[in-house]
Design a protein that fits this description.
heterodimer; A: alpha/beta; TIM Barrel; globular; B: alpha/beta; 38% helix; Inosose dehydratase (chain B); Xyl_isomerase-like_sf (chain B); IolE/XylAMocC-like (chain B); Xyl_isomerase-like_TIM-brl (chain B); carbohydrate metabolism (chain B)
C-alpha cells in the first residue's frame, strides 16, 4: 500500500503566506515534511510546468529533486484547466480543437517522466453548463474519449475527477457520462469529499465503477451541499456563503466520509495503485497544511492500513 | 540504544493555549507519525495545564494510566521524560516553588520530585529533567556555599526518585546562574554521579558560547538525557546577566531582538552540529532518550516534521 500526497501547500514566510514553489529552499522543506511522515510519492499540477522549467530546467530534474528527499516519484498530475465556454469547454464542440491541442502540448511537456494518470475535471463549472442535458454530457464524453486516446499514446491514463461544483456531479449525470465514455480511454478518479458534498455515496459510486478507477483523493468534508451551492456564481469552492471551508484532512473529528468502509471496498476490488491524500485549502479558518498532512498520514497508517490488513485476511 | 522523542513544550506557547483534548491528540499524532516514539512533558499548574502535572492529568484523563493509554493510542511508546522547573508554583497543593538553593525548601522539593517521578515511571519514562539553579539575573554569583547547597538538594532528589526507577538530569540553560564561573562544572563535581546526571541541551550550550559536540565529549560520563536542537544566535553580549532575562532575552530576543534562539536541526545557521553530537554520543556509548526540541517554534507541526526527516535520514543512521 503506497500513499501519495497531492501537493496543495501553504506555509508562512517573513513576507506572508507562500507556496512551496517559491524557491528551492521552500520546496526542500515541503518535500522533507511530506517524506518525514511516511508518504511514498507526490502528485502535482501540470500548470507548475513553468516554474519547474525555470527553477529545475526539466520535469525530470524536478523529479530527481523530489527523489533526493526520500520520495519515490511524481505519480499523477492534475490538469486544472481554465474553462471558458467561448474557447475551452468540453460540452461546446467548437472548442474541442483547442482542448485536444492543449493535451498534445501537455503530454509532450511531461514526457520526461513516467506518470500514472493525468487527472481532469471533465466538465465546466456547473453554471456554465446548465441546463445539463444528456446531449451535453454525450458531447463532453466524445471529447474525453479523444483526449484519452492522446494520453494513452503517451502512456498515461486519463482519469476524471468530479468536483461538486462541476457540470457532471450528480449520480445521474455521472452514470450518463460513464455510459458514454470508453472504459479503455476514460477512467475515474474518486475524490471522497467531493462526492460526499454532492450527496453521492463515495463507496457505492466507487463499487459501481471499480474496474475503471485509477486513483483516489482521500479527503474529508463536514458539509453536504443541500441548497445548491454547486451553482453559486462566481464561485462555490471558496466563496460559498454557507461554507467557508469545504475540505478537511481525513482523521479529524466531524468528518462525513466513512473511510474505513471505503478502504475495505478498495481492498476488496483489488486496487493496486497509489492512494493519494488531499486536503486542499487546509489553511482556511486557521488551519495548517503541515499539521493536516501529518494527521492524515497518521490516520492512514494507524487506522486505514490496519483495516486494509483485516480485509485482506478475510 | 538511542530512543528518539520530542518535547511537547512548543505546542503550548501561552498559558491559555493547548488546553483541549483534540489539540493534545493532534500534537501526539504529529510527533508519532514523524518518526518519534516518545514525548517529553513540561511542568505546569492549574486547570489550563492539562498535561502539566499528575493531578491535572488525572483530572483530564481519569488517571495517569488513562493518560498513558492516550499516549499509546497516538502511536507513541512512552512519556520519555518530564521537564520540571522547581520554581513553579503549584495551585494544586498551594505551594510557592521549591528553591533548591534554600535548604528549608528541600522537603517540598523532594516531595514534588517524587510526585512527578511516580507518574513518570507509570508512563514509561526514565528521566526527570530539572532547572537546577536560578537564572543568573536573579541571584548573586554562586559561591562555593551555594553550589554545596544545590548539590545537597539535587542529591537528595536523585536519591528519592531513584526509588521510582527515575534518574535526575540537570538541564543547563543559557540564562542559568551556573553559566558563570564554571558553575555547571562545579555543581557536577560536587554531586554523586550515581544520583545526579546531566540533561544536555545542545542549543542552550551553543547560545552560551559553548560547543555542543565538545560538551558531549566533556560530560559524556554524566549525560543521562539529551535535548537536541539547533541554535540561531549566540548570547555574545552576556545578556543572560540582566534581570527578567527569561522574558526580555529568551522570549523577546534581547537587545538584538533575536526572533528565535532555537531552530530546527538543519536550518541555517548551524550553530549545533547535530550529526556531530549524535556521533559523539554513540562513541561515548550513550543509551537513552534523545528528545528533539523546538521550543518557541511559530510552526510546531513543521518543526516536528522537518526534524523528523533529519532524524530518519541523517541522525538515526549514524546511531
Amino acid at each position: 500500500m503506497k500513499w501519495s500526497y497531492m501537493d496543495h501547500w501553504r506555509s508562512m514566510s517573513p513576507h506572508g503566506p507562500i507556496d512551496q514553489w517559491e524557491s528551492r529552499t521552500s520546496m526542500d522543506r515541503f518535500l522533507k515534511q511530506v517524506a518525514a511522515v511516511g508518504y511514498d510519492a507526490i502528485d502535482t499540477f501540470d500548470f507548475r510546468w513553468y516554474q519547474i522549467m525555470g527553477e529545475y530546467g526539466s520535469v525530470a530534474n524536478y523529479q530527481e529533486f523530489v527523489q533526493e528527499r526520500g520520495l519515490e516519484r511524481i505519480v499523477n498530475t492534475f490538469h486544472a484547466a481554465d474553462y471558458d465556454p467561448r474557447v475551452y469547454a468540453p460540452h461546446v464542440p467548437e472548442t474541442h480543437a483547442n482542448i485536444l491541442e492543449d493535451f498534445r502540448v501537455t503530454m509532450d511537456r511531461w514526457s520526461g517522466i513516467e506518470l500514472d494518470n493525468i487527472i481532469v475535471m471533465p466538465a465546466t463549472l456547473y453554471y456554465d453548463m446548465e441546463p445539463v442535458t444528456e446531449d451535453k454530457i454525450k458531447t463532453t464524453a466524445e471529447l474525453w474519449n479523444k483526449v484519452g486516446a492522446i494520453t494513452k499514446d503517451a502512456g498515461v491514463k486519463l482519469t476524471c475527477h468530479h468536483e461538486f461544483f462541476c457540470g457532471i456531479q450528480s449520480r445521474a449525470e455521472l452514470d450518463t457520462f460513464y455510459a458514454h465514455t470508453d472504459p479503455e480511454l476514460v477512467n475515474l478518479f474518486v475524490d471522497t469529499a467531493q462526492h460526499c458534498i454532492a450527496s453521492v455515496d463515495p463507496i457505492d459510486f466507487y463499487e459501481s465503477y471499480a474496474d475503471r478507477v485509477t486513483g483516489f483523493h482521500f479527503k474529508d468534508t463536514r458539509h453536504q451541499d443541500l441548497i445548491g451551492d454547486y451553482r453559486r456564481r462566481p464561485d462555490s469552492e471558496i466563496m460559498a456563503d454557507t461554507t467557508e471551508k469545504w475540505f478537511h484532512e481525513m482523521g479529524d473529528e466531524g468528518g462525513l466520509v466513512d473511510f474505513e468502509n471505503f478502504m475495505r471496498a478498495v481492498v476488496r476490488h483489488g486496487y493496486e495503485g497509489y492512494l493519494s491524500v488531499e486536503h486542499d485549502k487546509a489553511n482556511k479558518l486557521g488551519g495548517d497544511h503541515a499539521e493536516s498532512t501529518a494527521i492524515a498520514r497518521w490516520y492512514a497508517k494507524n487506522v486505514l492500513e490496519k483495516v486494509a490488513a483485516e480485509e485482506v485476511a478475510r | 540504544m538511542i530512543r528518539w522523542g520530542y518535547a511537547i513544550n512548543q505546542f503550548n506557547p501561552q498559558f491559555d493555549d493547548f488546553v483541549r483534548r483534540r489539540q493534545h491528540q493532534r500534537a501526539l499524532r504529529v510527533i508519532s507519525i514523524s518518526g518519534f516514539s516518545g514525548v517529553e512533558l513540561s511542568s505546569g499548574s492549574g486547570r489550563w495545564e492539562p498535561l502539566g502535572n499528575p493531578t491535572q492529568i488525572a483530572a483530564n484523563f481519569g488517571s495517569v494510566a488513562g493518560f498513558g493509554e492516550f499516549v499509546r493510542e497516538a502511536g507513541l511508546d512512552a512519556v520519555s521524560s518530564w521537564f520540571w522547573d522547581p520554581w513553579t508554583r503549584f495551585g494544586e497543593d498551594l505551594t510557592h516553588g521549591d528553591d533548591p538553593t534554600d535548604p528549608a525548601k528541600r522537603d517540598g522539593l523532594i516531595a514534588h520530585a517524587e510526585w512527578f517521578a511516580a507518574a513518570l515511571a507509570e508512563l514509561g519514562g526514565s528521566v526527570l529533567v530539572v532547572r537546577p539553579a536560578p537564572y543568573a539575573g536573579q541571584v548573586p554569583r554562586l559561591d562555593d556555599a551555594a553550589i554545596a547547597t544545590l548539590a545537597a538538594s539535587w542529591e537528595a532528589v536523585g536519591t528519592a526518585i531513584a526509588a521510582h526507577g527515575i534518574r535526575l538530569g540537570l538541564h543547563f540553560d543559557f540564562l542559568s546562574s551556573l553559566r558563570a564561573d564554571d558553575g555547571l562544572e562545579r555543581l557536577l563535581a560536587a554531586t554523586d554521579p550515581t544520583l545526579v546526571g546531566l540533561a544536555l541541551d545542545t542549543a542552550e550550550f551553543a547560545i552560551a558560547g559553548r560547543d555542543a559536540v565538545a560538551a558531549v565529549r566533556a560530560h559524556a560520563d554524566r549525560i543521562v538525557h539529551v535535548h537536541l536542537k539547533n541554535a540561531a544566535a549566540i548570547d555574545t553580549d552576556e545578556e543572560y546577566l540582566t534581570s527578567a532575562a527569561e522574558y526580555t532575552v529568551l522570549r523577546a530576543g534581547g537587545a538584538r531582538v533575536v526572533p528565535r534562539w532555537f531552530n530546527e536541526l538543519a536550518t541555517e545557521p548551524l550553530l549545533v552540529d547535530a550529526p556531530g553530537v549524535v556521533a559523539e554520543l554513540v562513541r561515548a556509548g550513550y543509551e537513552g532518550w534523545v528528545v528533539v526540541e523546538s521550543d518557541f517554534s511559530p510552526h510546531p507541526a513543521t518543526s516536528v516534521m522537518l526534524n523528523g526527516w533529519e532524524v530518519q535520514h541523517v541522525l538515526a543512521p549514524i546511531s
